């Protein structure tokens, strides 16, 4: 594991654009962060071609702000110098393996039982996107964020699936909620109020 010291250090470490890097944003005081670090230590020891980068947000102040990482633990997948995905929360090892290998999150049988697969499609400067993410975090639900401002190639794919261009769009196990529609989100997640 490589401990990232600042944004310039991250750029230097990821200069080999042919590799895909998992970057773990964590805090030493977070038990879930420690569990995610342990999972990636194990993955790194099993596969020598993986280079895991870590950012302790309590010490390194510029990297998570640059990438709009607002919750820990979070694992960002960097490919060709750009963040492709951000996975928030604690998941099992198989979930992270799929996210890393496929750069797309598909639930395994193990994860399906534990939690719903949630992907939040956002754009920069979208206040409803922020509210949707905050709401999911308040429910302690892990989710993947796809920022369309940073991943414009995903826009066409999303429009083909939903016929909509607005954000946020929330994919909950393949069913989409357009906008921050809290009652529909609760219904799909089985949240009882």
Description:
The chain has 193 residues and is an alpha/beta fold. It folds into 2 domains: 1-106, 3-Layer(aba) Sandwich (Glutaredoxin), CATH 3.40.30.10; 115-193, Glutaredoxin. It contains 8 helices and 9 strands. It has a 9-stranded mixed beta sheet, sandwiched between helices. The longest helix is centred in the first third of the chain and has 16 residues, at 31-46.
Helix content: 25-40%
Radius of gyration: 16 Å
Main sheet record: 9 strands, mixed
Structural class: alpha/beta
Give the beta-strand count: 9
Strand order of the largest sheet: 1-3-2-4-5-7-6-8-9
What is the CATH superfamily of the largest domain?
A: Glutaredoxin
Enter the CATH topology name of the largest domain: Glutaredoxin
At a glance:
Helix content is 38%, strand content 22%. It is of the alpha/beta class and 193 residues long.
Q: Which helices and strands appear, and what pairs or packs with what?
A:
Blueprint: E1 2-3, H1 7-13, E2 20-26, H2 31-46, E3 53-56, H3 63-66, E4 74-79, E5 82-88, H4 93-102, H5 109-114, E6 118-122, H6 127-138, E7 144-147, H7 153-162, E8 169-172, E9 175-178, H8 182-189
Parallel strand pairs: 1-3, 2-3, 6-7
Antiparallel strand pairs: 2-4, 4-5, 5-7, 6-8, 8-9
Observed structural traits:
single chain; 193 residues; alpha/beta; Glutaredoxin; 2 domains; 9 strands; 22% strand
């Amino acid at each position: 594991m490589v401990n990232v010291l600042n944004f310039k250090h991250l750029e230097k470490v990821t200069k080999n654009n042919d590799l895909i890097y998992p970057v773990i944003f964590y805090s030493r005081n977070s038990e879930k962060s420690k569990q995610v670090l342990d999972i990636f230590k194990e993955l790194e020891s099993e596969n020598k071609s993986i280079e895991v980068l870590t950012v302790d947000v309590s010490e390194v102040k510029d990297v998570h702000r640059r990438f709009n990482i607002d919750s820990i633990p979070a694992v960002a997948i960097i490919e060709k110098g750009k963040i492709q995905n951000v996975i928030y929360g604690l998941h099992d090892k198989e979930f992270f393996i799929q996210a890393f290998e496929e750069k797309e999150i598909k639930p395994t049988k193990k994860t399906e039982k534990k939690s719903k697969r949630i992907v939040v499609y956002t754009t920069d400067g979208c206040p409803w996107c922020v509210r949707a993410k905050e709401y999911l975090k308040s429910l302690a639900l892990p989710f993947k964020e796809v920022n369309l401002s940073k991943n414009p190639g995903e826009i066409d794919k999303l429009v083909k699936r939903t016929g909509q261009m607005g954000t946020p769009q929330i994919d909950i196990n393949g069913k989409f909620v357009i906008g921050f529609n809290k009652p529909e989100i609760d219904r799909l997640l089985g949240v009882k109020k």
